[in-house]
## 1
Amino acid sequence: MLSGRNIFITGASRGIGLALSNKLALLGSTITMVARNEDLLVDNIRKLPTSKDQQHKYVSYDLMSLARGVKPNNHGFLVENLEKANILINCAGLATYKLMPKLTDDGILDVVDLNLVAPILLSKMAIPSMLKQGRRTPVPSILNISSLLSATGTAVSGTSAYAALKAGLLGLTEALAKELNGKIRVNAVLPALVPETDMGKNASANLPTVSLLDVVDTCVKVLEDESVNGKFVPADGGKFRTLN
């Protein structure tokens, strides 16, 4: 079902975004990888599974600049590839590990811009072209990568700002799904702590853990299941289910 889809993935240079890029390319999708680190993107895109019908691309882009109204020289290339996408995966994120009084104002704004403002702007940019695709099967899709910290009562000291913004993604997911009324599916996956990621390596809290493979499998199920829309789906190693 994902073969032949054009998928735009942010945060694609490492962690969940990179793992999703590899899995979805293996399933036959054409991937546009978006991240800041061009060296990692160049190296990773060479390793993506590729057939003659797949032309993977990358865009080296600082999404915090997008949130601040600054358009780099390659902004047009970002827009061009986003407008071709059948699926947008908002995976880029920035975690904090400081108690609220110790956070700098700039640090808070960075977390806000990357974790929430950028996904809102990218969704806004993607929706018009997705709607032009019409009511085809499968319908276009937006997938937001949130966190178990945002909605399950799990509280980790030093992650208040991060948890708040990931909760904001859930509000975006549910409201936008209703607004689009089935013309574009919008869902959120809420991973537990993933030890293989940068956040998982740095976290010291007693948070439930999940393998990177389980997170990717959960995302694929959400993308493939046309009945799932406006849902919050935990990725915690348990059975496939929704929280709303």
Note: The helical segments are 15-26, 38-47, 63-67, 75-83, 105-132, 160-180, 198-202, 212-224.
## 2
Amino acid sequence: MGSVFADFHEAQRVGYGPLLASCLAPVDTPRDPHRLDSFAQISNYHTVSADVRYQIIQARTAAKLPKAEANAWVDIFVALWKCVRELVALRQGTGTGDWSKAFDAYKELCNHLVRGYTNFGFQAWTVPCLSVAGKYLRMIGMRADSETKAKEGNGDVFASGFSDDIMGDTNKNEKLEQAAWTINRMFTICLSDRAEESESRRWGIYSTTNLLFKTYFKLNSVSLTKNVIRALEAAADDIPNLARFPKSHQCTFKYYRGVIEFLQENYVDAEQNLMEALQLCHKDSMKNQEQILTYLVPAHIVNHHQLPTNALLAPYPTLVKIFTPLFAAIRAGSLAAFDNALSEAESELVRRRVYLTLERTRGLCLRNLFRKVCLAAGWEETKDATTGEVTGKIRRTRIRIEEFEAGMRVSYKGATDVLVDRDEVECFLANMIYKNMMKGYIARDRGIVVLSKAGAFPGTGV
């Protein structure tokens, strides 16, 4: 406990927010590996308020604080002690610890912290406390919900990170919902500040925004992110430019904005945000890069009809496993292989929320199949209009619909549940032309497709 309060008073003297925020983290540290145990043992439920008050206000080394502010910090550290007491009991396996009680205590800490800003004049330099408190409230809430499910016979695994935020289980999340409400209050505390920029709590806006996004995704309440985005856009003139915030805040914000746009099928905006997130991501953060590429790759394919190179995916084994068979089928123009690859990876793609987007790449597979039909159709001679002499040859530009139909039948070779008829083939051809993936027109009366002599399949060299 001594090290916690020593850091607290040092942070108050020098006005260093990250050090102050570290005092609220209910974890051991490399510098003090027994911090939680010593913090829990320094007092008991009967005297904890008096003991904390002594450490904050009356100790010889205590920093001098206004009375109301000091009392607010006493309440905060009393709540922290209650939380740590439960966490230590859980770690010791005595059977007396409870994750729900730990969450309730830490939520009490967060509520006192919010009141410190609204009622007791906590200064702007202390804003890192909000993001640290919100982070651990969210983590303890997830663990509490997980334990509740386990007791009810519906076990879950506690984890954290980009992937778990996007791909979370959405059964009973009572504590996490409470955490979301509390973090939303922290977001409002930062957003509503009207102080001068140098003294503004708005420097904490993106850390709390990112926590809200993470929590809403975990709750499968992505629609709630719209309210956060609207609030940010409305206050854009008063918020410092995003580029002035730490890169970690920028990267995380761009990632979630990209995923939100991706889920709303705004693939152009999604690609732009995700590309910026990838550029901001630390070069050694392979897991985070993988998560960004999980959505950036499908968005790029939909926008540009271009597949990524094998070299791009090679450093990410998970992406290689789920994407490579699908992309190989697209390159080969094999509809049967495409359907098989999509079916085999379905559960993982659904979990990552990219299944429907990748299903749309079937059109690219079909484009490549029709391109192969065009190449197989061969060449035809060109003749001089005056003399009738052969002057060269060009690829056939008039191809019978039956040839495309035959190509589809070959592509589906081995599939027993697929029937291909002429009307369906015409429909596919019309869609290709409409989407500008083929250039030409269908002459139905003659049963042929007339392709452009130059760039019949844009971007493919044919």
Note: The first strand starts at residue 379 and ends at 383.
## 3
Amino acid sequence: MDDARVVLDYWFGRGDPDAEELAARMRFWFAGGAPGEQHERDEEVRERFVDLMLRAERGELTAWADSPRRRLALILLFDQFPRQVYRGSARAFATDPQALGLTLSGMQAGADAALAPAERLFFYMPLQHAESPEAQDESLAAYRRLLAEVPETMRGVFQRTLEYAEKHHEIVRRFGRFPHRNRALGRPTAPEELVYLRNADTFGQ
């Protein structure tokens, strides 16, 4: 099977999910679960995909960007999988620029329009992960469009994804970055960030 298809089938399952299946998949993507469950998923991604991630870093998979879904698989290798394989370390964010570039150029070419709603959720994720006010503005616009376009039965699920985008937008608006990454990235934490971090969501990192 094509490697890009393996990545997509692992992350999204096979076929276009209905609302109930999508809600279950959201728990797989975002709920985290008990620490042991999270660790098991991280190890599974590491075991199955770290070689592809390294190939992507070396520029060996650039041809994947030639089609919308294969581009999405490449975005996952640069954006989502490192957050699991390298959780809590600077390397979790090291390939964010590559992911963001693929998202922005893909949107400019209209690649996102060829994807299913659940796929678009992750196509736009590098915008949400960017420590850039401009990218955060793009993120809000993209997730608002997505919410407006999904079937009524899926509105509840995608409303929650917009709320996550709004949280990320507000953090970057307030601090210019994500303070919860400071320790992993070796950055000093400002006093106002320390106050914020006492009760902050670390988004799995």
Note: Residues 117 and 150 are 7 Å apart (CA to CA).
## 4
Amino acid sequence: MKPKTSDWRNLVQRLLKTELSKKGIKYQDLSDKLSAVGVDQSADNLRNKINKGILGADLLLQIVFVLNIKQIKYEDIEEILADMQ
């Protein structure tokens, strides 16, 4: 079965929330980390975007950068998508 747009948004949400949880980072911490690299996003704005799974590619890459995410494994993506089916 082909994933729907909502599946991809859910995937983004799960991946980012998992990383935030693993690193013990709250939305205000994420906002502060982004601010340190010149990206202004309030904690509430980040929470809304991540909860909806809707954010631009630039913000996604900025979050990956400030969270120091080394890799996102293809197998993890497959597993999450399969879990949603």
Note: Residues 5-84 form one domain.
